[in-house]
Amino acid sequence: MALIDISLPPSIAKALRLPARSPRRQQLRVLRKLLKKARFTEFGQTYRFDEILLSKHAGKKFQQLVPTYDYNKIYEAWWHKTLEGRPDICWPGKIKFFALSSGTSESASKYLPITNDLMRGNRIVMIKQLLTLRTYHDIPLKSVGKGWLMLGGSTDLQKGPGYYAGDLSGITAKKVPFWFSPFYKPGKKIARTKDWNQKLEAIVEEAPNWDIGFVVGVPAWIQMCMEKIIERYNLKSIHDMWPNLAFFVHGGVSFEPYKKGFEKLVAKPLTYIETYLASEGFLAYQDRQFAKGMHLSLNDHIFFEFIPFNDKNFDSDGNIMEDAEVLMIHEVEEGKDYAILISTTAGAWRYLIGDTVRFVDKERCEIVITGRTKHFLSLVGEHLSVDNMNKAVQLVADEMNICIPEFTVAGVPHGLFFAHQWWIACDDKVDAEPVREKIDQKLKDLNDDYAVERNSALKDVYLKILPESSFMEFMRLKGKIGGQHKFPRVMKGKMYEDWVKFLETGAI
């Protein structure tokens, strides 16, 4: 049975047949739906949702009456009440699940509310993405009906006073719809395992019993899983075990640094499908083969706003300014970086998710993720984004025929000026100096500001090559292995201090 041919619940099927509208009209419809549902909450009463709904210009009125929030601001003002068990704060009812964010930028976990409405919206977007596979060419759709290996967090969630908390992937797996259960691997028993190494060992043990067509997860952990299966059973490629494996659905981090490593593990090409599934919601997905970017989910459960990511709207630490310019979907331009504000069916309102995106096709509303508001380097005006870094690393890896699956960068003092310190993961035999020179040159080619500052206050670039295992061990010591955890591309603050200590002592 092919997964995309199964019967869907009537409510979901109805949602999937919504008529096409302009992006602006779609988004205003979503906003009104959110406001109507939350009008009687404490948040809705405070910020006069009824008044916004009566306005002819609901979008602008919403922006006038409701302030913008980052995590700390909305938690201190509102979300701590939901964590205490109080109902009807930012969304109707009592919040029973909280996603613990992967926290690449900060040491403390964030508690993000998860509602049934949000999970339903995420499932609808997932099904829409599945239906788009019909438009892909020359791919074995029979693989969609095979097993799906979803390598996520544990479904054995932390129990709090009246709620459960854990990795979003663990919550999602725990609440897998009944119609999806026959396809879902590794199964509920293994999914409950909290210890990452034990979970991986159990998956490797069961691998011969599965016929996997899809793998879903963060590239680093999927690659590690495949490598262990190939090693355990002395295989030439993962296709010796799973001949129907055809798709890899990934997200949360650029796939390009991992692509060369993946190609060594397969006997035939995989179709790579990018998604933008954050703990706060399913924001976007690749809906056609060879697309420039991911299509924003405009007609479902998230209202988007966009803040031009520049010095006028953000300070040097990536914090939003009080008078920041905020745009709606019809006001954005191609080729510019924006930070995203979202309002969702989980009671996130005008919430700064922390990612930056760029529209690569405005007509199709397709975006690429370019980095994080706090994960960029601009010590002296070089404005170096994670997207710049990813592209430079990819170009150098291809040019030198080496694999660089992980890297991180930090700004460091250089006398009275500054320098960039790179650490890259590479298990191939290669000298650091040519890699350093090539990455530096590629960044000059990609970023004019960087090129100017390299002749001014950005005095040097340092680079050290480490084994990939060093990066994985650091993540293990930080308790951030497996699930949705990603290695931070820019090191700042406490994370940087721990990284330096780890490199010096092997501990944190």
What's the short story on this structure?
The protein has 17 helices and 18 strands. It has 508 residues and is of the alpha/beta class. It folds into three domains: 3-77 and 292-372, no CATH class; 118-278, no CATH class; 386-505, 2-Layer Sandwich (GMP Synthetase, Chain A, domain 3).
Mean pLDDT: 86
Helix content: 25-40%
Strand order of the largest sheet: 6-3-7-8-9-10-11-15-14-13-12
Class per helix and strand makeup = alpha/beta
Index terms:
about 500 residues, alpha/beta, GMP Synthetase, Chain A, domain 3, 11-stranded mixed β-sheet, 4-stranded mixed β-sheet, 17 helices, 18 strands, about 35% helix, about 20% strand, globular, disordered N terminus, acid-amino acid ligase activity, GH3 auxin-responsive promoter, GH3, GH3_M, GH3_C
